[in-house]
Structures are given as structure tokens and as C-alpha cells.
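Review form for a predicted model. The reviewer records the input and the model, then writes brief findings.
Reviewer: anonymous (R2)
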Amino acid sequence: ERGRPIRLIPGSSFRLENGSRLVLLPMDHAGYTQICTLITRGRRNAPKGEYALPDSSFEHGLDHCLAVWLPADESDLLTAHWLTGFFPGRCWLGASLHLGPDNAARLDRLLTTAKTAGLPVTACGDVQMHIRSRRMLHDVLAAIRHGCSVGELGYRALPCGERHLRCRSQLEQLFPTPLLEESATIAGRCRFRLEKLRYRYPREVVPEGMTPTRYLRELTEAGILERWGGSAISPELRAQIEKELVLVEELRYEPFFLTVYDIVKFAKSQGILCQGRGSAANSAVCYCLGITEVDPARMSMLFERFISRDRDEPPDIDVDFEHERREEVIQYIYRKYGRDRAALAATVITYRPRSAIRDVGKALGIPPSQVDQLAHNMAWWDRPEGFEQRISELGIQLDQLKMRQLVHLVQSIVGFPRHLSQHVGGFVISEAPLASLVPVENAAMANRTVIQWDKEDLETLGMLKVDCLALGMLTVIHRCLDLVNISSLNDIPPEDPATYAMIQQADTIGVFQIESRAQMAMLPRLKPACFYDLVIEVAIVRPGPIQGNMVHPYLQRRRGTEQVEYPSEALKAVLERTLGVPIFQEQVMQIAMVAAGFSGSEADMLRRSMAAWARRGGMEHMHQRLVGGMLERGYSESFAEQIFQQIRGFGEYGFPESHAASFALLVYVSAWMKRHHPAAFACALLNAQPMGFYQPAQLVQDAQRHGVKVLPADVRYSDWDCTLEDRGEDRGQSQVP
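Model under review:
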């Protein structure tokens, strides 16, 4: 009935060797595990996108599952008796009726087969679409799946448009009452709910005889000694560390921190340069563990950006590794936990305008040249509603039937899932085999396995996801350190005036994050002179601050042409470091807490809602909460409205301060190398290609402008990589076209 909650019954449909289908439904948690394990076995035994399960696979290990059989041949007694034997009391013959000319005769044949084999019969909708009008879209999707046009589908297309959802009254007219009652019986026996799934963290990271809490504290205390030596840390920093440890213990996230610590420890033991970033840089514990390199004593940290008591999901720690050696880290995780307990998360690739035009156009049989012309004139940000105008601009007549169909179908299909891909680096690790929680399949890349859920699914279940990402600049920095015989990043002198002078002149080709034209245009205006200026530089040339009208006020206040005013001392503490202009996501959260009375968890929900606001609108529901809270605390209505408009301008593009700080470290290191070791820096950049904004020829020209002598590749003397020679930089053979 309308307005009543729908109880989801998970299950899976399999194709038997004779073409009939078998639907498996779990009765309990054990049944769900059995189905996931079966799917995993079939997927792992076949290339990506396929599965291989002989009929014998269904003969064992499914005793907690119900089976509904949809026969391809209504008189198939052999399969009926086979299923009766292996699913005693747990198998039904599914009767699907779609108003065909022989509905009554077909039902009679099904009932006869079921009676002979001793199988009960249940009504099956075999639903393929929610309404009948989606039949054309279904045919197009079928043609895309089979790699042919709609006209070539033949019997692979639906014979009619009746496989849609029906209301109860229609079902009562179509099916005999006993068949409908049998479907309710099946639903009653399926007691499993997805919310019953429980994820457990791996235990290998905790030594025998120790608890995760004690081990994490010991590592943190050891990290304090390593980071700050024998000197006492400030009371504020000690209080921050204790606050984090207490909250981590309360939420039982210790194994998560210890798992990431173990991965980073392995990377460092192998000489792989790595650095944590993102919201993890808000954590003093992560700094003590060596996961991040942002000193909490130098930054204004907001731990709620990282972990919130009210947010029922684990924290998110992103770790960047050298892009040429990340695979070593990935294979270490597979070795340590096994392929049954570690896999990459999936990401659902959806249709965008260009891919929709190409796939739908091919399915409709439109000439490839015309499809290419249409696709090339669409951008990824174009809305489907403007597709007709784009076609008209190309001089194509919309009165053609295929063009009208193309417009309608492309508008319908944009946003649809296209295929399942692997996450860029999100690893899922569990104590129990992953197949007990989610099916696992092979990735397109060799020696990789992927689960069938994306990061939103993982967050809902509270599963641990460690992001092992690849960053080309770390490769460049490591190669450059080796070339100039510097052992670690700690040996690079901080706050070097010559480096900042080079940055202020926008001489930053090849420098991490500030080499784009937009960043280079900003550098002479902002004139970074210290590390925190680099943090602001990284974050300010982003859509969020630009849309929120924050760039020009900040620059004017920095030059002294506009007075800096703070509505209150409380907000001064939040905004003073950015001259009264909110630039970072953390500042938005702190403003909500200080000026509007939000709790830390509520402020984090505000931050997380920004992306949804930008995509779907509907921000106004927060307007009264935010503005009203500020008015209650004595702020003017004009100031409250200004803050709200700035937050709305941030949308999904606001940049976190913790993320900017992590990137700023690499900005400074790469700029220092370019300033003091231009030949080694250029050599390392060329050896790490492809990466960055510039082609190798542009990097060579820039090096030559800095006095570096670049020798041509010579088959007699050159190595594969570029090298440093006494007579100049030798271009390696890898740079030969």
C-alpha cells in the first residue's frame, strides 16, 4: 500500500546451463553468506563482467537458501526433479504470466510439471521495468549489453512490454489466488535483513597479549617522543591527543588506525615515500603514528572533520604513495590478509552525455560518423535538457524519428549505471572472508580483486576502507632526493626565502599544485612568504572560494586596501588566520559551531550536506537553523545572510584546510628542489612522466631557461632514464619519441 515501508528481500538470479533461471533467496544470515560465496566463486572463475557456474555448483552449500525456478521449457521435468532433490521443501516453480496468447495453456503446462515433480508453484512478475513505457529503453539497454543494434536483437529482446510492476488488483486478475499466497509464504520465510550484517576489523595488527587500545596508546606515546624529542609538548596538544584516543576507544576504531599504521610502516621500510592527507591531517594521533606529516602544533585542527561521535561510520584516511611503487603496497595488503579478506572497493560508472550518445546512437543504428559528430559537440557538464539545442546547432533535423528517439533515450539514460569499475585505491579489509559480506569479482587488471559495493555502501555498513592512492609528485621528490643525496624530507630547510621569492614570481612550472595557469596568475598577487601562505594558495584557487566571493576580499585585505573586521572575538579566533574571510571547510564548520550554536557533529553534517546541496539544491532547510542561531547570539542579519551565502557558494567544492596543508608540504619541497637543484628536479620530472600539466618538451625548455644544459639522447651513452652528467643533463632513451 502507498506510504507503507517496503521490506527488501535480497537475492540473486542465475542462468542454468539449459537456459532456465534460478533465483536464490536467503532465509537467514547463513543463506546470505552462501549466496555471496557462490557469486564470488562464479565471478573469480571468469574474466571481469562474466561468471562461470556449472549446474553442479548449486548441488551443495545452499541449505539456508530458498530457490525459485523459472523454466525455459514448461515441460522440463529433468530440471524440476533435479531441483526437488537438492532443495527439498525449499524450491518453487515460478509462473510468470505476461498476457500472452497462450497464457492459460502455459499455466496448465507449468502446473502439470510442478505436480509431477512435487514442486509448489508461486506467482512471479519477472519484472524488468517499473512502467510499461520503459520498454523502448529496456530494448536499447539490451542492445548495448549484447553489442548490437536494436534491430539485431531478435529473440534477445522482450516479446512485449508487460514485464512491469503491477498493483495488487491486477495481480489478482492475472494469477490464481493460491499462487499469490505462495509468494507471501516465500516472503515470510526470508527473515534476513541487510542491516543484520556486522563487519569486524582485522586482528593481525595487534600483537599477542595486547589490546588494540593499549597498543595504539603505546605507538602514540612512542610517536610523541620521535616527533618532539624529549621536550614537553604543550598542554593544548596533550589534551588534543587524549581527546582523540578517548573517542577512538569509545567508537572502537583502534584496529582502523593500526591497519593504516601497518601499511605506512611497510611502505617506509621499503623506501617508498608516502604521506597521509585529507581529513586525517586533522588528527594529532595520525601525526604521532607517522601517517600524516602536518604538525598539529602549526595548524588549527578540527577533529570532528575526521571523526564524529554522532556519525556512524569509520574515519577516512587517504595515503598517497609513489605512483610507480604503489602496486608493491597493494600486493603487500593482499599477501598479509589474503585475497579472501582484502579487495578493492568498486565505483559505479554512470552515463554522461557523451557516453550516452555513443551507446544509444550505436544501439539505434545511427551511422558512426554522425554519432561521433554529436558526441564531440557535447561536454561532460552539459545537461541532458539542452541536448535538443545542441543537435539543432549542428544543423540536424529533429523531425527525424531516430533523432527524436535519440534525444528521448539520452535524456532518460544519463545518470544510469553503465558499468562497475574499481576504486582508485580504496581497500576493504575484514576479519572474516569478504564473501560473507559482499560478492567479490576479478578486476580488469591482473592480480586485482574488487568487491561489488561502492564507497557509499561501505559507509552505510561501517566497513573499513583504506585509500591507497598514487601520487606522481612523490615519485619525483624521491627521485630528486636520490639524485642530490638527501636522505629524507626532514633534511630540507624550512621557510627558505629564495624558494618563496621564486614562487612569488610564478616561476613554478613542474611544481606540485601551483603550476597551472590559474595558480600562476594568483601567485604574484598573493605573494606567499611562509608555509601557511602556501596552504591558502592551494585552497583559494578552487571553485568554492571563487563562487563564494572570497578571493578578492582576501587579496584586498592582504594588501591592506580593505580593513579587516570581526563581528566578535569568538569569530576572530576562527577567521583571523585568513583575514576574516572563510576559505576552508573547517572554518565553515567552526563558524556554525561558534556563531550558530551547532555541535561538532552537527557542523560536520553541515559540511557533508554541501555536496548534496550543490547537486540537488534544497539548502533552504538549513537557512533558518543557521541564520536563526546567529541572530540569537547577537550577530546582525546582514552578516548572517552573508555567511549563509558564502556557505552556499562553497557547495561541494569547498577545500579542507587539512588537505591543503598536506599538499602545501609537497608544494614547498618541490619548489625548494626546483630553486636549488634545477637539473635534478627536471631530471626527476622527466623520469616520472606522464604527469602534471606540461609535456616533456616544455619541461626541458623550462630547465634550459634555468641554466640547465640538456644533452640529446645518445644510444652509445644514454640510459633508459634521464641522468645527471658532469657536462649537463643527459636525456634518456625513454624520452625518444
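Findings: The chain has four domains: 12-127+165-195, 212-348+421-471, 491-657, 661-735.
Further findings: The mean pLDDT is 85.
Recommendation: see findings above.
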